[in-house]
Design brief:
The protein is α/β, with parallel strands linked by helices and 338 residues long. It contains 15 helices and eleven strands. The chain has two domains: 176 residues, Rossmann fold (3-Layer(aba) Sandwich), CATH 3.40.50.2000; 143 residues, Glycogen Phosphorylase B (Rossmann fold), CATH 3.40.50.
């Protein structure tokens, strides 16, 4: 009989809810994928958007669960979750996602005071962790302690490549009730989040309009994750203009649907665009973004995302995460002399 997989208490401040079904979908997908490979997972969601007190309240709850003999380790997603999960006795894995280690850019330069506090707490979480997962090389390099950087694994979020697949644009538009002839630039974020730079995307489309090429900037957010493939397939391209990202899943999902991407050089986007010729990496400037959009939208209209699909499948990523779990458990046993 094969050994049972690890029993995992997943602690996260990002997880789909009825009010926001797309929130933290990548966490849900990853936990579902490790379950398929044999792990048992129970999720503890910390609704941090309801106030910082939710993290304080979670500390005791996580500690009680960890002492219940139901779990082998704790996997925390995001630095604040990792800090709240650091006061319990089990091996701890912390996944860092973006602004938890990088901070949130402030309008006048630097990072916001709130995100500076989050970053400090996230660094403490890294110190306490038995194993670390970073979504990109940039995040790993942001860990201040050399020992933390040395034991950090760079593992991007996986994509359900059975769901996010190429499809017919016209069929997708008909299902969504969209104009078949309209040129659509998908902006897959909430426009009012400053660091996503909707203003920069708008400015680029105004440049194009002055040149006689009219595109519609199509902002999409809050859509259930299972419905997103049609939104990608319906678009002429995806546009990413963020000031900061970790490993944006929207880029990988679009490429898995063979949809071209125009993006500024942020997070690990360059890595994925290098694997899908026909996309465009641009400077963070409206004129440069407009030129990239023109090149992609007026080009062949689809890219070959097969290489990306091969690298980001959820089962492949889940196997890497399970290896980190085993490492964390072994390191804790070694430190305890077991």
């Amino acid at each position: 009989m094969s050994d049972p997989g690890p029993r995992v208490l997943a602690v996260t401040n990002m997880y789909p809810t009825a009010a926001d079904p797309g929130y933290g979908a990548f966490v849900a997908v990853q936990m579902e994928s490790v379950v398929r490979l044999g792990a048992a997972v129970a999720v503890q969601f910390i609704d941090g958007r309801a106030g910082a007190s939710r993290y304080a309240a979670a500390v005791g709850r996580i500690r009680r669960l960890a002492r219940s003999d139901r779990f082998d380790l704790v996997h925390a997603h995001y630095g604040l979750s990792g800090f709240a999960a650091g006061f319990q006795p089990l091996p701890l894995v912390v996944s860092f996602c973006g602004d938890d280690l990088l901070g949130t850019p402030a309008r006048r330069g630097g990072i916001t005071p709130k995100s500076a506090c989050v970053r400090w707490l996230s660094r403490r979480a890294a110190r306490r962790a038995d194993a670390i997962i970073c979504k990109s090389d940039e995040l790993r390099d942001a860990l201040p302690h050399p020992t933390d950087r040395a034991r950090a694994h760079v593992i991007a979020n996986g994509v359900d490549t059975d769901r996010f697949t190429p499809g017919d644009r016209g069929d997708a538009r008909r299902r969504l009730g969209l104009d078949l002839g309209e040129r659509l630039v998908l902006f897959p974020h909430t426009p009012d989040v400053p660091r996503k730079r909707f203003d920069l995307a708008e400015a680029a489309l105004k440049v194009m309009a002055r040149e006689g090429l009219h595109l519609r900037l199509w902002a999409v957010s809050g859509v259930p994750h299972a419905q997103m493939p049609d939104y990608y397939r319906a678009a002429d391209c995806l546009l990413l203009t963020s000031d900061q990202e970790g490993s944006p899943n929207v880029v990988k999902e679009a490429l898995c649907c063979d949809v071209p991407v125009v993006s500024v050089d942020v997070g690990d986007v360059r890595r994925w665009l290098d694997r899908a010729p026909g996309c465009c990496l641009v400077e963070r400037d409206p004129v440069a973004i407009a030129a990239g959009l023109r090149q992609v939208v007026c080009g062949r209209g689809r890219v070959d995302g097969s290489t990306v699909r091969g690298e980001v499948s959820t089962d492949r990523v889940a196997a890497q995460v399970l290896a980190v779990y085993r490492e964390a458990i072994a390191r804790r046993r070694m430190s305890a002399g077991v």
